[in-house]
Amino acid sequence: MYTEKIIKPPSGYLTLVLFLVLLAGGIFALTQESFFAGSAILVFDFILVLPGLIIVNPNESRVLTLFGKYVGTVKSDGFFWVNPLTAKKKLSLRARNLNGQQLKVNDKMGNPIEIAAVIVWQVKETAKATFSVENYLQYVNIQSEAAVRHLANSFAYDNLEDESADITLKDGADKVNMLLEEELNERLSRAGIEVIEARISHLAYAQEIASAMLQRQQAAAVIAARRLIVEGAVGMVEMALEKLSQKGIIELDEERKAAMVSNLLVVLCGDKHVQPVVNTGTLYN
């Protein structure tokens, strides 16, 4: 495993001046019919001086190798001169976005889902990105897809499938994103890549089960709403009976209490408007 070695080469401006001086000297020697000296100066100038000049833009780097051996990395932006015999590979240090494609995978409960992620990453260690993997761009794409698939397999889509789950893909957004970022950093560290941010950008059931799951969610919502209505109705009936008893408005036997409770529950729990019935007789007729 290669370790990045940052070097600071000398400024290229003095070398540029030297290049221009040698160029003028070589041309002058040729004009004086000193062809050997002039040719030697120009060959030295264009082979050993000029090729060593490099320009490093902001958020870029140059990875230098000499005869197959890693020499170092230039990360400082500016104009420099390095050994002209070294191979100089440009490597961008800018942050990049990876908008992952939608993947069809199974969640923890085996349900097919569609999932995609957006990843912000950058090259952190140029030596690893250059020498530890064949193509670091392809490596990022493949490992990111593998991490998203592993994440989807590790958690259920929602609590309808796994009621005891502390984290689900649907409701645990921040925690899921953090776990995805941690796994990506672990996977991509071999290539010297740092993940700045990773977020789930698309999450849905696969088309073949989407309508069935929607019906199930709607049924669960109706059941939850009915449960709440019943709990509230029972509380209201209990409060009504307690108030009638406290204020002595009317005395009801057990049979009439049961009838009153039944009627109140029908009124309070029904999903349609009820029609009132006026009793013109006595309480028992």
From TrEMBL:
The keyword Transmembrane is assigned to this record: yes
Keyword Magnesium included in the entry's annotation: no
SMART domains linked to this entry: PHB
Transmembrane spans: 12-30, 36-56
Entry-linked InterPro entries: Band_7, Band_7/SPFH_dom_sf
Protein name per the record: SPFH domain-containing protein
Bilayer disposition of the protein: Single-pass membrane protein
CDD domains for the chain: SPFH_like_u2
Family matches, as PANTHER family: BAND 7 DOMAIN-CONTAINING PROTEIN, MEMBRANE PROTEIN-RELATED
Top-level taxon of the source organism: Bacteria
Entry's localization field: Membrane
Domain Band, chain residue ranges per copy: 51-217
Keywords: Membrane, Transmembrane, Transmembrane helix
